[in-house]
Design a protein that fits this description.
Low-confidence stretches: 4-12
Order of helices and strands: EHHEEEEHEEHEHEHHEHHEEEHEEH
Number of domains: 2
CATH architecture of the largest domain: 3-Layer(aba) Sandwich
Number of helices: 11
Mean pLDDT: 94
Radius of gyration: 22 Å
């Protein structure tokens, strides 16, 4: 399996220079983005750099950048991996607290560890980035080897690649990494002409439920504005950020992302930021932030000032679904967890992670744990499919 989405027909010699970077400031933006094949906003230089420049990731907050970059003999960037030294497991969405507890009970240190992921973002995407025309498998092996060598050199407990693509998961498995199965709920566009056409594929009862939810929001006098990044003004970002902070504090404690971060990506990724704003009596009462690639819409954060029936579903799901259908997007990934999404057309979908564990005994135990866990998740996903809202063909 290819470690990236490019068509790799040619090979190059093994590059001569590998660097570990504690920030992206020394990397050329276009050179980094040249490694991306699907316009995934979360892997773009603009997004990762904004996290660093606005102090959302650093040693103090437990996400210390350790990005791997590889150059060829001519000094050209040909491969990279976003990587962080982690001092805790917050903001990862692949839960290994039990592993950390087991280490502690055995008087061993689980932290720090290395994590290749997008901070605070449970979004699938490549973790082994390679330029077009290079040997992706060769570079993938080198990136994994460099990560493991870095962990060994500093006596870190482990290295983890979170939410890789299925093809990269398979590649990592072939390299001897432990793979772990998880489940999210994603929507697939089956060439729907409009929202009514989408609902026409539902069972009668499930279709009526959604129509009822949408009517409730409309009857409450709520209307919506969908804005791209360059259409969002400072006041609208402040409103969104207030909602974001309130829900974040209610669920997870201190908010991880800053207002300046959101404003920066709004400016640097204007066509990939989509903010849904809900208004009642000319006052904004709810907001949902999405980002998009060429083919996928990603739901990320939401909040509101009024708890109206159906407002969450309309703001976070139905407005996004209509946007996907109108703009021909193939998929909508609304974030982690939430079985309530199934009734709204988001079906159980496998997601993955890959893991290297330094301690041999723990490696064996964790490998057995992930095998047993996968069996249970497979069973759960089969059961959840019975709750699909779509009519049986």
């Amino acid at each position: 399996m290819k470690p990236s989405g490019h068509d790799h027909k040619h090979s190059i010699a093994i590059p001569m220079q590998i660097k570990i970077l504690d920030n992206l400031g020394s990397i050329d933006r276009m050179a980094w983005n040249h490694l991306l094949s699907d316009n995934n906003p979360f892997l773009k230089y603009e997004f990762l750099s904004a996290l660093e420049c606005n102090h959302c990731v650093n040693e103090e907050c437990g996400w210390q950048p350790q990005h791997i970059v590889i150059y060829d003999d001519n000094g050209k960037l040909v491969a990279a991996s976003p990587l962080y030294l982690k001092y805790h497991s917050y903001g990862e969405f692949v839960f290994d607290w039990a592993w950390a507890d087991a280490y502690q009970r055995n008087q061993l240190a689980y932290y720090p560890k290395l994590v290749s992921a997008i901070p605070f973002t449970p979004i699938t995407g490549p973790r082994l980035l390679t330029a077009p025309g290079v040997n992706a498998e060769e570079m993938g092996r080198l990136l994994i080897e460099t990560t493991i060598n870095l962990a060994r050199e500093h006596n870190y407990s482990s290295a983890h690649w979170l939410f890789p693509t299925t093809s990269q998961k398979n590649f990592m498995q072939h390299q001897g990494l432990i793979t772990r199965l998880s489940c999210q709920y994603h929507w697939q566009n089956r060439n729907y002409e409009n929202f009514d056409h989408f609902l026409s594929h539902f069972s009668s009862r499930k279709r009526k439920n959604i129509l009822k939810e949408r009517r409730q929001v409309g009857a409450a006098g709520v209307n919506f504005r969908l804005l791209n990044g360059n259409e969002i003004n400072s006041e609208e970002w402040q409103i969104f950020y207030k909602f974001y902070c309130e829900i974040y504090k209610r669920k997870w404690g201190s908010p991880s992302l800053s207002l300046a971060f959101f404003e920066e990506i709004s400016s640097t990724l204007p066509e990939q930021v989509l903010l849904v704003l809900a208004y009642k009596d000319n006052k904004c009462i709810g907001a949902a932030l999405n980002l998009r690639s060429d083919n996928i819409l990603y739901g990320r954060h939401w909040g509101c000032s009024e708890q109206l029936p159906g407002l969450h579903f309309e703001t976070c799901y139905y407005q996004g679904l209509e946007y996907c259908i109108k703009n021909g997007l193939e998929r909508f990934e609304p974030g982690a967890q939430g079985e309530h999404k199934i009734a709204r057309g988001f079906l159980p979908t496998k997601t993955w992670s890959a893991h290297w564990i330094a301690e041999p005994q723990f490696r064996q135990a964790i490998e057995q744990f992930t095998r047993n866990e996968a069996i249970e998740i497979e069973k759960m996903m089969l059961q959840l499919e019975n709750h699909s809202p779509f009519r049986q063909q």
